[in-house]
Design a protein that fits this description.
About 30% of the residues are buried. With about 160 residues, the chain is an all-alpha fold. Helix 6 packs antiparallel against helix 7. The C terminus is likely disordered.
């Protein structure tokens, strides 16, 4: 099997960024998405659309590269940014926040978001920041609800 050239990988990364990652809107969500495309038995990445449009090798390399880029950008961002993004993810999942925070704390699901190849100290910083974000959310008593103007609220049935 031939190896993808750097220009093929870069073209694939550009397509991935524009069509898939940008619409997600925030790095924590992108990181979850990218890590979900990695086979945990082999460490290889797969995306059918990218593999079809480019090649499996270019797709895998592009996914791994974007995963590392997004991870480092988030891991090295200020704690407040990590907190905001974790909160946004939990709010967007529409699951009970308390159950979600408990599951993330006990299962440490965020560990699978770390790329296979990364600096151990940066990985520890990321884990620590996510743990702190969870503690802050717990201390607040939940995810902050989005405030909607009263005029846009619909009356409950029977009102």
């Amino acid at each position: 099997m031939r190896r993808a050239t750097p220009s093929e990988v870069e073209a694939t990364k550009q397509d991935l960024r524009l069509r898939t990652l940008e619409p997600i809107g925030y790095d924590f969500g992108r990181l979850i998405y990218l890590s979900s495309l990695r086979d945990f038995n082999t460490g290889e990445y797969y995306h059918q659309g990218l593999a079809h449009s480019f090649s499996e090798q270019a797709a895998s390399a592009a996914l791994a590269g974007c995963h590392e880029e997004v991870f480092y950008r988030l891991a090295l961002s200020p704690l407040e940014s990590v907190l905001t993004q974790v909160e946004l993810f939990i709010r967007s999942s529409r699951c009970d926040w308390e159950k979600t925070v408990h599951a993330w704390e006990s299962l440490e699901a965020y560990r699978v978001m770390i790329p296979s190849v990364c600096d151990r100290l940066v990985a520890e910083l990321f884990r620590s920041n996510v743990k702190i974000a969870m503690e802050v959310l717990k201390s607040r008593g939940g995810v902050r609800a989005e405030i909607q103007p009263a005029a846009s609220q619909r009356p409950l049935p029977g009102q």
